[in-house]
Amino acid sequence: MPAENARAAGNLDDDDYPAYTMGRAADVLGTTPAFLRALGEAELITPLRSDGGHRRYSRRQLRVAARARELVDQGTPIEAACRIISLEDQLDAALRLNRDMRRRMGDHGADT
User: InterPro entries this protein is in (predicted)?
Assistant: First the structure.
C-alpha cells in the first residue's frame, strides 16, 4: 500500500496525469462539459478514458482548454480558436528547435 500511495502522490506532480473528470474540469475552467466535448471533437485535446469510458483530463489539457476559452470569450469561433492554438504550439516547437540547433551549432563552432 505505501508504494501505491507514493506512486499516486507522484502522479499529482505530473502535468499529463489525467486527474480531472469532465465535470471537475468544466468547473475548474468555468465552462460546460459541452465545451470540453467540442474541443475533443476539434481534436485540440484528446482526453484519456477511464476503465468505465469516462473522459479524464490532465492539467496540461486544462491549460490548453483555458486558452481556447479565452479566445472564444473574445469572440473567436471555437474552430478558429482551436486552429490558432495549434499554430501557436507549432510556432513554439519550431522556435525551441531553432534555439536548440543554434545552441548546438555554437558549441560545435567553438571547436573549429
Answer: DNA-bd_dom_put_sf, MerR-type_HTH_dom
